[in-house]
What we know:
CATH topology: Aminoglycoside 3'-phosphotransferase, Chain: A, domain 2
Strand order of the largest sheet: 1-2-4-3
Number of helices: 9
CATH architecture: Alpha-Beta Complex
Number of strands: 9
CATH class: Alpha Beta
CATH superfamily: Aminoglycoside phosphotransferase (APH), C-terminal lobe
Radius of gyration: 19 Å
Largest sheet: 4 strands, antiparallel
Amino acid sequence: MRRRGLLLRRGPAPLAQPALRSSLRARPIGRADGAPGEGERGRRAPSPTVTAPRDWLARLPGGAARFESIAAQVAADWGLVVGPRIAAGRYSYVAPAGPDAILKIIPVEDDDADHIADALRFWDGDGAVRLLRHDPTRRALLVERAVPGTEAAQAPEGEALAAAIDVGKRIWRAPDAPHPYRSVRDWVRRWLPPDERHPLVPAARRTFEAMDLRTDTLVHADFHHHNLLRHGDRWVAIDPKPIVGEPEFDVPAFLWNPLGTTSTRARTERRIRAFADAGLDAERIRRWAIVRGVCDGLPLHPGEDETTRPQLRIVRELL
Length: 319
């Protein structure tokens, strides 16, 4: 089945941001468990599952003080009055800059976030918070503040689904060429666990290898309730980890969120049907949920099993 009626729009050319590389960035960081303030995500660098230290920044070279110093320098240069750090920003330095803006300092270690500024400039406030200013050298972003900033996690199920579909239709656009984004193929090759001993890994690999991949759309790659905020009378996305792929790739993270809820087969299928009714391919959503669920749900750690991982529970539902 092909996508039905989903118009992919072209936007302005993205920013040209040089990629930064270091020995820390040459390998995945923090593949152990972690706990994002933003939701149940995949195991990225930093690791975003539910049991990590409260402050990943404190574990990096220079600790949180390194980012406080950068934030102070940027605030002085840009004439900002910056408030106390927002605790929920565990994997970057996030602080209010007056009532209408947020200052964000992204660790160089988090290379999944290299092109946030490019994506926000490309979307230009349509479906995502607007980029106001960017310093690529210091990895500093000043972005529009969503007000009141209520998460979709706090909305009723139907409203949250409608918000996700509306935001998705706005941000799932074909980027202009050339663009700086990694492909979904590179993403899977990086994050699919190499350990074939877990029975779900071969299943995910077979599913992935059987797919005819599409890389014609800029996707959020961390698309869930906790990254969808109310802004006035609309909803907007925050904190993308942008890559090029297809809209169906974005849906699985929404399936196993929000935090503190337990998925059921009925809920999963209801959500998939809603996205399919909006024009996406239901079968490709299921296939991506299998692949992403294994990428995001493994490895397991002592005291854990598949029932403790919402991603893996959904994989089992769909196999």
